[in-house]
Amino acid sequence: MEQNSAKILTRPARWAEVEGLFSGGGEPSRCWCRWFSVTGKAWEATPVSGRREQLKAAFDAGPEPGVIAVKDSVPVGWCAVEPRHCYPRIERSQILRSAGAAAADGDGVWSVSCFVVAHGHRRGGIAGELLAAAVEHAFTHGARIIEGYPVDPALRPKAGAADLYHGTVSLFTRAGFSAVPTSAPGRAVMRLQR
């Protein structure tokens, strides 16, 4: 599963690496990639420390809830990927409903929900390497279908970092994903089937 490119190693994440990457501040240190894993009321009621513990619990339960990119022994990127049923917000989302996907798709559907790339390492292809590792990780653990929910900057030119953590349509297209038609302008459901 390990991939090497320009001294970047991507593989299933280890808790200590993710903890180190997220502790650097910014949105990851507030969210801990748990936005999609809880409902709105639970999100509001859960302090940051609780979100951190929720992600750690996902690591403890296994398999790893994501993959990491490491450069010179330093974590520089993360991609969250878990079975879609682990993400109630995604399963209830209007984007998913508009694509005709449903919880009935079963446990074989995994979701790529989030990318984090450290400042100073962006625009260097790390997200593409993370996505490739996430796909391999999901298929290794029984995925039949892998979904992503990226932004299309061509239709949402003002999309900022708060939107782009989902990835972009072009990133998923380059990785072999196909778009599922939705009624959400500028947002897509992308699917890859084994």
UniProtKB/TrEMBL annotation:
InterPro entries according to UniProt: Acyl_CoA_acyltransferase (IPR016181), GNAT_dom (IPR000182)
Pfam family, one: Acetyltransf_1
UniProt xrefs under SUPFAM superfamilies: Acyl-CoA N-acyltransferases (Nat) (SSF55729)
Top-level taxon of origin: Bacteria
Gene Ontology terms for molecular function: acyltransferase activity, transferring groups other than amino-acyl groups
Name of the protein in question: Uncharacterized protein
Ranges annotated as spanning the membrane: none
